Structures are given as C-alpha cells and as structure tokens.
C-alpha cells in the first residue's frame, strides 16, 4: 500500500508540473532590461568590461527562442554569453514562465578594421515577424601604446628605481623613452609599466594630450631630466587610469604615480587634471634647492589613494592648485624643504575609508630603523608659505605642523581660510599653533565656511556664502591675477583657487 501511495503522489506531482515545463515558441513579446547596451569607450584591441542584458518572459508559459545571435554574425567584434554559454549564435534558448535569463556582452575592437569609431551591432532574437533586437554601441579610440619590451623567454623589462635597506636594487616593470620626447594631442597615450624619462632628457607634453595609465604604471623622471606639461586653459592635459567606463570615473588607486625623482629638476606642470592615482605627484630632491624643482599652476589633482601632492625635502612653487579626496593628505610637505603656494585650494573630503591625516601636513624630519631602533633625522624647513589659500575638509583639523626640534622650521600663513579646532588646548598651546604670532600668522580666517559647490564630487568652486570672499591679500593676488578658470580676480580677490559664483538651485 505504501508503494501505491508513493507512486500516486509522484504521478500527481509530475502531472501538476508538466504544464510548466512544456514549451512554446516565442511569440515576439520578450521584454528587456534596456533597449540599447552602451559599452562605453574602449581603446583599440583592449577588452571592455562585461555588461549585461536581462531578457524577460512575462508569460505564464515556458517559451523557446528559436535563435539569439549577433546581427553581424561571426564577424562581429562583440562576444556573448547566454545563460552561461559563450558564443555568437544560440539556438532554442528556453526561458521559464515568469522568469528571465542574463546575456553578458564584451568586446575587443581593432580600430584599423572599422570605418566608424562608433561601432554598433545588435543582439537579434528570433526572425521574421517575431524578430526583436537590442542595439549595442561602443566608442573606439585609437591610441599610442607604450609598454616594456619582452624577451624571448617572456620576461618583461624592468627599470631600477632605487635600493633597499640591504643595498639591493629595487626594480619595477618599465622602460625608458628614447631621448628627448614630445607627447602630442594627436591621439591618446596608453601606458603599461613605468615610463621613465632618461637621464638629462626632457619629456614635453603638449596641450590637449591625454595619458591613460594601466594598473601599476606611471611616469618617472630620472636624474637631471625634466617633465614639462604645457596644458592650456581651454585645452587641458588629462592624466588618469585606462579604464574609461563611468563606474571607474572616480575610483582611487587605478594607477601608480608621477614620480619626480631626486636629482631631476626644472619640472613644470600647467593646466593639467590628474585623477585616480595611488599618489598624484611625488617630488623628491637631494637636499636644499634655491629654485623650484617643480612649478605647478592651474592644476587639479583628485582621488589619490594616498597623497595628492607629496614633497620630500624639495622645492615646490604652486599657484591656482586644487587638490581633493586623498586617502592620506592632499598636500604633504615633508622632510623639510621649500614650499610656496598662492591662491590654492587644499581640501580633503575623502569618504572611502577612515582618514587620520590632515588635508595639509608639514614636517621637517624622517624616520627609519637601524639595529632595531628607530632613528629620527631632521631637515631644514626653509619655507612653508601659504597665501590666499583654502585648507578645508571633513575632519576637525585639516592642518598640521609636525615639528621636531634641532633645525630651522620656517612657515608663514597669510590671508588663508583654515579649518582647525581652536577649542583643543592640547594643540593650541603648542608654539607652532600660536595664531596670535604675527611672525607666522597674518589675517587668517579659522573655521569659516568655504561654501564649496559639491566637495564630495570634486566641485570646489566657492559660493556667495564663503567667508573667503574679498579677503585675499591684494599684493599676492596681483601676482596671480586670474583664477583657475581664467576669471580675472576682483580687488580685493577671494581666497582660494576660484573666484566665487552664485549657485543655481
């Protein structure tokens, strides 16, 4: 009797389910999560990210789609994966009642084999009167590709970037340019590994050039070499990672850094945007320099995983600089040196993780371990002069002077808007934070509202409620008479890199 009941239950269950698993041909009434899939921008011969399309069967019956294929067929530069199966042409694809399937789409396109940089195709479902399709669109860019060589054994070339504590060479994948080099704006540069300027040579980057660095890649200036970036107000140089999809637009740490090594000199960076690096720019020097190692003007640095601009015992002169969203400090003037900044905005509204460093950090020492003991060595801070600058961010204190006794520590803050916790007696009783000392602090505004437009999305132009309006030092403004947008500064001018505007609601 038990077997009879079991068989009966099985028969009833199977019979009740058979209707769900019987299939009907698609009637041409599929629905889709989107009618066009934009695969965004890709470089020639570089694979895209994976995009998806969801296909819905909203009927009460299991349907079978006779064919799903690419409109261009096997010659298409697109690739599909339908419900877990890769290919370009699929037959009799079933979708359960009230269910859906995923189609994943990728592409790798050879720019030389297409007649239009906007490459299109479609995913075609069924045929004849029941035909439905979803468009595929990709913008393809041609580019110069620079990368390390590879020998016959498959080993990728490396360059020496220093020595470790044992005196052994530290090497990284990279290559040297051939002598003096000019990067033009004819087409973008996609760079793999570290691109190094040879000793004693120059790299000149023309206005409108675009540099895209792959992961663990960057730019290095060797001894006695120079980097000259000649961006213009309306034709800026763009330097960022090589992932062009919108989801990567503001992701920090996509590539390495621009490293101006000790012994390199006479660097100039103008009208440039640097984004999404591990560290935007690192500037090193070999002791005291009476002239700037780096002169940087009208430049923006955003979304650095560690530092936006890191100086180490060097000399930097900056005007109309905007730095924001850095995992550590937006500006770090360390191990002494000479630093002069005018009409710049140093902000830090980093929200990717906890941040313990201030927006602006200044110190005169470095530490290392010797015989298991920490050694602190000081270096002269010849100057740290900030005039008409904004120092702001999401922390309580966005400005730290970290002084070790034993050498000169020279600094002057004049007509700045600075975020600093004046209620903390542990800091305000320290000599370097005596804001009444006119030898070091003149006409600064503490904890006034900067009134940035949208600081978390790197829009740091100030509005009409800013406390820095018409509070700039006039003499310094006359030396930098135009803001970062090319707007003539008022007299007196506004503090920071921007003249204020009235925000639209």
Your description of this structure?
This protein has 505 residues and is mainly beta. It is 6% helix and 46% strand. The chain contains 3 helices and 42 strands. The strands form 5 sheets. The chain has a 27-stranded mixed β-sheet that branches. Strands 1, 3, 5, 8, 10 and 11 form a 6-stranded mixed β-sheet that branches. Strands 2-4-9-6-7 form a 5-stranded antiparallel β-sheet, with no helix packed on it. The N and C termini lie far apart (79 Å).
Q: Which terms summarize this structure?
A:
3 helices, globular, disordered N terminus, 42 strands, 6-stranded mixed beta sheet, 505 residues, mainly beta
Q: Number of helical runs?
A: 3
Tell me the helix content.
under 10%
Spans where pLDDT lies below 50 across 5 or more residues: 1-20
What general form does the structure show?
globular
Class inferred from helices and paired strands = mainly beta
Number of beta strands: 42
Mean of residue pLDDT?
A: 93
What is the radius of gyration? 30 Å
Q: Termini separation (Å)?
A: 79 Å
